[in-house]
Amino acid sequence: MDSQVVANRYIQLQRALFNEQQSLKEQFLPHIKKMFGDNPLNREVPVLMQLPRPIPIELYRASLQAVSHIISDNEPHIKQDIYKLISELSDQQADQWIKAAIKYEMTYFHNLAKKQHVSDWLPHFLAEQAFRPFAQGIAHLHASIMTEFNVMGTCPCCGEPPRLGKVTRDQKTSLACPRCETQWYKQRLACVHCGDDKEENTFHLTIKEDESVHIEICSTCNNYLKLIDRSSYPETMSASLLDLQTIHLDFAAQEEGFGDDNY
Ligand SMILES: [Zn+2]
Ligand SMILES: [Zn+2]
To answer: What local confidence, expressed as pLDDT, does residue 261 receive?
Structure first.
């Protein structure tokens, strides 16, 4: 399969969004620091689920404005729909957007799309992209303690199921979260999804045209993990972009019937 299945335009949009999110993240860091204070954190629950104070609505609105601007510039045909969604957003609704984005409440966003007569994917995309600077900021602030967390294999910062791993030359795998950019290490031989650690239950799908990537599949839970050779991609490339650049692996795995509805 062609590894350039994702339109260049979409990659460009994601790159622009990521750059903006990084600058918003820097801007929000002092506020995020204040939100957490010195509260002790439970190492068995993702950091994001332990937010001691809500994300300030005015900051979320600023983020929403900034990402809306970028999306409208890149996709002018949905400018009106974006405007329709955010122009009359009340504080209460903005707060609901944040909560629904954190909890991945897709039903909420699907209903909103129906009610506002906009594309089904748009409300969640907007809410999630505006939320990412906060997720990335929270990850940044807690980067040094991420290895102390054990949250059933999910991202220790945001709870996202793992889907992307980078393999080093000595066969160590670091997992990278495309949502909050957290990196953490995979336990050797254990399936990241169900924890099965029997080697015979793991097999690999390779892609003929690309030797730098493969898919690790668990026959116990039928789920998969995309694995890339760390040296084949620039160290500075964000996990969100890597995830997008390797989307052909998701298509290959899903075509074979692997993965679940979260993918
Ligand atoms: Zn994450
Ligand atoms: Zn498994």
So the answer is: 52
**C-alpha 43 to ligand 1 mean position (Å):** 15
Residues of the chain whose pLDDT is less than 70? 1-6, 261-263
What residues pack around ion ligand 1 (CB closer than 5 A)?
155, 157-158, 160, 177, 179-180, 182
Q: Which ligand sits closest to the CA of 221? A: 2
**Three-state secondary structure call for residue 105:** coil
CB 206 within 8 A of CB 229: no
Q: Find all residues with CB under 8 Å of 176, minimum gap 6, and list them.
A: 164, 165, 166, 182, 183, 239, 242
| Residues shown for the chain | 263
Specify the pLDDT at position 56.
Answer: 95
What's the structural domain count of the chain?
Answer: 2
Q: Are 201 and 139 in contact (CB under 8 A)?
A: no
Q: Which residues pair with 184 in a beta bridge?
A: 175
Considering the entire predicted model, what is its pTM?
0.90
Residues 114 and 167 in one domain: no
Give how far Cα 56 sits from Cα of 195, 254, 258, Å. 36, 38, 39
Convert the pLDDT of each residue in 47-91 to its tens digit.
999 998 899 999 999 999 999 999 999 999 999 999 999 998 999
**Range(s) of the domain holding residue 217:** 160-255
Ligand 1 geometric centre to CA of 154 (Å): 8
Tell me, what's the pLDDT at 6? 61
Gap between the Cα atoms of 15 and 17, Å rounded: 5
Domain finish residue from 116, 145, 174: 145
